[in-house]
Amino acid sequence: ELPPSEFMQVADSTWLVLSVVSNGREPPGCQATGVTKIARSVIAPLAEHHVSVLMLSTYQTDFILVRERDLPVVIHTLAGEFDIYKEESGECVPVTCDDVSNGFLKPKPTASPTLHPVQSPQTRFCVLTVAPDTLPAIATMLIDVLFYSHSPPWDAATGSQDLDSISFFSFSLIEGYISIVMDAETQKRFPSDLLLTSSTGELWRMVRIGGQPLGFDECGIVAQIAEPLAAADISAYYISTFNFDHALVPEEGIAEVIQLLQQRQESSR
């Protein structure tokens, strides 16, 4: 419904959303298995079959977005490990390989994926949720942060931004559940009694992937981060965006994460 505009860039592909749960169906209150838990069983196999994915972690669960045209490859790749369902009229209906076999082509081998540089700003982040009925109370503040608290100008000449204090704010509303990521300084502007976080109130540090916009045709970007973190049993909150990918990890583990990723890059040279 958005009107065409010279200021709005739209990716060519249409994407489908996958969610992974531990028992194949999602009863009330069931939590998804998390990006580090599904690294080997979902993210790595899809990367090996040259399927580009976007990751979207939220306060409640994690989602994997795949291009609609890649669905036959996705089904064939994951059917051996998972029971796969599609939603029809609010009901979960089993999906088999035969349902999507039309047009399935075995992917051709390609060169090893590019290992993109990773950068870690000093900014500390909070992962929060808000009860939907309290959203109007912070609506004005949300609008101010989203549209009027702009980040420092991006330096087109050097192709970089000052990552010592990166500006990052994420708001998602999915099936009535709200998830927000904001830096610790921005959090102070909101009423503390309306923002809900984990009982530990932990802070997160960010690893940003890519020195320039990544595009959507390359595969293995999420796997580059998720696989070594999964091997070290480090949890991560992962958000793919139009230009870059971002992984949030617990603040106390950032040094280990940077070391792991640097070792991975050095071993691949």
Descriptive account of the structure:
With 269 residues, this protein is of the alpha+beta class. It folds into two domains: 15-99, Alpha-Beta Plaits (2-Layer Sandwich); 118-151 and 159-267, VC0802-like, CATH 3.30.2130. Helices cover 22% and strands 23% of the residues. The chain has six helices and twelve strands. It has helices at residues 39-48, 71-78, 135-147, 184-187, 221-231, 254-267; strands spanning 15-19, 53-57, 62-67, 84-88, 91-95, 118-119, 124-128, 170-174, 177-183, 204-209, 237-240, 245-250. Strands 6, 7, 8, 9, 10, 11 and 12 form a seven-stranded antiparallel sheet that branches. A three-stranded antiparallel sheet has the order 1-3-2, covered by helices on one side. Strand 2 and strand 3 form a beta hairpin. Helix 1 packs across helix 2 and helix 1 (39-48) packs antiparallel against helix 5 (221-231). It starts with 14 loop residues before the first strand and ends with a helix. The relative contact order is 0.17. The model is unreliable at 24-33 (pLDDT under 50).
Topology:
Elements lengths: L14 E5 L19 H10 L4 E5 L4 E6 L3 H8 L5 E5 L2 E5 L22 E2 L4 E5 L6 H13 L22 E5 L2 E7 H4 L16 E6 L11 H11 L5 E4 L4 E6 L3 H14 L2
Defining key terms:
CASTOR1_ACT-like, VC0802-like, CASTOR_fam, alpha+beta, identical protein binding, Alpha-Beta Plaits, seven-stranded antiparallel sheet, phosphoprotein, 269 residues, ubl conjugation, three-stranded antiparallel sheet
